[in-house]
C-alpha cells in the first residue's frame, strides 16, 4: 500500500481509484516516449545510469485518491491566421528573425501570430494583457505562444529581455482554465522551475499580472530562504501554478506537502543556468515523476550539450524556436574594454561613475541605472560602501544577504532611490529591470557565457545599452574572445561560443595552451630579432613585447 501523507488520510477514505490514461486522439506529442524515458541499463551519454534515473520516491497522490485526467482542448487561432499560406508564414518568421525547426515526420509548427486577439485567448486573459500594457507580441511570444497553446513540446532559445516569461505564462494560464476545478489536497496544475529565488519571484509576479481578472486563481512561489511553513499552508490549500526552485520543491514533495499528480504543463526556465548550478539531479527527479500525459516547455539562453541531452530525454518531438543570435553579445550593446591594474579598479570605477553623475546633473537627466559586477561577496559590500561615500546611491546584492535584504535591494533599484546595484553573478541572469543603461564588469567573469549574460542586463527588448569591462593580464584569454565577438558583430557574422561543460573543457585546454605558449615566449628575446608566432597564439602576446611595426599589431586592433 502506498504511503499516504497525513493531510490526505481523511480525504482519501472512500474514494475510488482512477488511473490517468493517454488520449490517443490528443496532440501528437503525447507518444510512448513519455512512458519510456529511462534508457538502457548501460550508462547513458550524459552519465546517468538506468538505476540513477529511476525514482525511488513517489510524488503522486496515493492510489486511493481519484485524479482527473488533464484536458488538452483543441486550440485554433483566428480564421485570418488559418488562411495564411506557407510562403506568408516564412515571410513573417523572416521579419521576426525567428528560426523554427521540427523533428522529421512531425507536424509543421503552428504559424507565428503577430496580434494577441488572433490567438483566441480567454477573455479574462485578454483583459489582463491590455492592462499589462502589451500591444503586440514580441518575436518569441509570436511564435512560442501558438506552439504552447497547440499542446506541443517546445525548446526555446532567445536573447535575454525577449519577453519569454509572458510567452509561457499566458499559455500556462489558458491551460489551467481548461482543467477540472482544484480540490483541497490536490497538487498544482502547472509547474515552473527556475534557478534562483529572484527569477522565480519575477516569474510569479508576471503570472499573477496575467491572471488578475480570474476569480480564485492561485499561484504559489516555492523557494529557499523564506518561511517553509507558509509555503506548506499555501500548497495544501491548493494552487493552480507553482513557481519553484528545484531544491525547495523536492523538500515539499518529500514532506508530502504537495504532489505532481495533476501537473500537465511544465516549464523549465533558464535551464542552462539550472544545470550550471548543479540542479540536474533535482530536475530529473521531478521530470520522471510527472504524469504520463503532460506538456513540457524548455527555455534556455544557450544550448550546450547538456541541454540537448535533457531535451532528448524529456521532450517529445519538440518544436525548436530560436530568436535572434543566441549565446553572443547583442549588437545593441556598446562594449568597451579597459585595462586597469587590480589595485586601481575601485578608484577608476569611482572616477567613471562620479563623472557620469556630474554629466547627468549638468544635463538635467537622472543618473542612468547601472549594475556593477564583482567577483566576491566581500568586494561587493566594499564597492557599494565606497560608492556611497562618494555621494552615489548604491546598494549590494549577493548570496550572503538575507532574502529580505535582497528583495529590498532589488526594490530600491527598480523603483528608487538606488540607481547603482553592485552585484555578484546572482544578478547576471533572469533579472529583468527595465531601463538598465550601463553594465560595468569591475571583475570579468571566468567564461564568455557568463560575460554574455552579464551584459545582457542592458540593451533589453530592443533598447540600446553600454557595457564597460575592466581587465588585467590574467583576463587576456577572455578579452581575446570578447574582441573577436565584437569584430564578428561589426561584420555581421554569427558568433559561435561553446557553452556548458564543453565550454569549461575548452577553456581549461586553452588556458593550458596559453600557459605553455607564454612559457616558451618568455624564453625568447624579442630585441633585435624577428620571431614568427602562430596565429592561434597571437592574442596572448602583450603589445609591449612586439615592435609596433611588427605584423602582430593587427591582432590588437579594435
Automatic annotation (TrEMBL):
Keywords: ATP-binding, Helicase, Hydrolase, Nucleotide-binding. SUPFAM superfamilies: P-loop containing nucleoside triphosphate hydrolases. CDD domains: DEADc (cd00268), SF2_C_DEAD (cd18787). Residues 145-321 form the Helicase ATP-binding domain. The keyword Nucleotide-binding applies. Residues 345-505 form the Helicase C-terminal domain. Residues 1-54 are annotated as: Disordered. Residues 13-24, 42-54 have a biased composition (Polar residues). A motif (Q motif) lies at residues 114-142. InterPro entries: DEAD/DEAH_box_helicase_dom, DEAD/DEAH_RhlB, DEAD_box_RNA_helicase, Helicase_ATP-bd, Helicase_C-like, P-loop_NTPase, RNA-helicase_DEAD-box_CS, RNA_helicase_DEAD_Q_motif. PROSITE patterns: DEAD_ATP_HELICASE, HELICASE_ATP_BIND_1, HELICASE_CTER, Q_MOTIF. Residues 114-142 form the DEAD-box RNA helicase Q domain. It comes from the Eukaryota. Belongs to the DEAD box helicase family. DDX21/DDX50 subfamily. PANTHER family: ATP-DEPENDENT RNA HELICASE DBPA, ATP-DEPENDENT RNA HELICASE RHLE-RELATED. This is Uncharacterized protein. It comes from Solanum tuberosum (Potato).
